[in-house]
Amino acid sequence: MTDWQQLHGSHFAGYRALITGGAGFIGSHLAEALCRLGAKVVVLDDLSAGHAANLLPARERGTVEFVKASVLDQAALARCTRGCRYVFHQAALGSVPRSIEQPRLYHEVNTNGTLNVLEAARAAGVRRVMFAASSSAYGETPTLPKNESILPQPRSPYAANKVAAEALCLAYSCSYGLDTAPLRYFNIFGPRQSPDNAYAAVIAAFAKALIAGQRPIIYGDGEQSRDFTFVDNAVHANLLAARHEGIIGGQVLNVACGVRVSVNELARAMAELLGRPDLTARYEPERSGDVKHSLADLTRVASVLGYKPVVDFEQGLRVTLAWYKSVLSREVPQGI
Asked: Domain residues of the chain, as ranges?
């Protein structure tokens, strides 16, 4: 959908890049874009959440070296990072509710895993590490839109992991000269985002329910709002950060669209687009750790990277729902 060649030219041609979590939702889109741009892509993924089928579009457009391993495997990380110019660290355990249930596991993978990635990148002489940070760092801070100077207030172990990993990125830039770019994603959605678990992101969960002829479930009153961001925008921000000529130095940057949509509005829009306006939402008690409102201030990322969204919410939602209709109508779903 997005013309990566037009946006990024030949900057990545011939360069080796590691994507941790590259068989996952965002990582696989990043792999596909880098292959289109002529990069030599290495994917490290333990397939605990990712799927090998997600890499098929990337493999059709270039060479992808796949290594099945975890970011907790320091030896595998060292092998994969050798000779890389860039590292895109996307691997993590997702889901706020699950992190509340399993805080030690989340700390091990998300925080210690990031330390392992940074150590491997430092040893390999990598030019820059892009890190998938999260808007959950802002917690319930009342200021809207959220700007990067706001003091983090993590409300879940997942959010705390992401804040700790951001701090590690800054520390490695200051202590070792390893340039890092923590990118705070705001509610990324798009094709390949799995709807098939109890912790599915809201757009994926709504799509699965509506396509199955079921009413979507909203936790809370539905007036909570999010800055829903199509996946191509996250990919674009990563590529802009990688090719940035100056030093980013661990500076946190928001990645979003800068538009706020309530969950009630989302449910109505999705039902209309899928031709099921009769399937109104049903409501359950709000979940622990969830924040009420989220909206990004894009001033800093526009100034530092020249970032602006390449796909707006409405366009991205239409593309995403078309993909879910295609995939969920199959007898045996593939690539999710």
From this structure: 12-328
Q: Is residue 166 classed as helix, strand or coil in its secondary structure? A: helix
Round to whole Å and give the CA distance between 80 and 69.
10
Distance CA 200, CA 132 (A): 18
197-232 pLDDT, tens digit each: 777 799 999 999 999 999 999 999 999 999 999 999
Place of tokens 């979590």: 21
Catalytic residues: 158
- Residues facing residue 254 across a β-bridge: 184
Of the candidate CATH numbers 3.40.50.720, 3.40.120.10, 3.40.50.12160, 3.40.47.10, the domain formed by 12-328 belongs to 3.40.50.720
Query: Residues 196, 201, 204, 208: what is their CA dihedral angle, to the nearest 10 degrees?
Result: 50
195: left (phi over 0), alpha (psi -120 to 50) or beta: alpha
* Residue pLDDT, tens place only, 170-197: 999 999 999 999 999 999 999 999 998 7
pTM over the 0.85 mark: yes
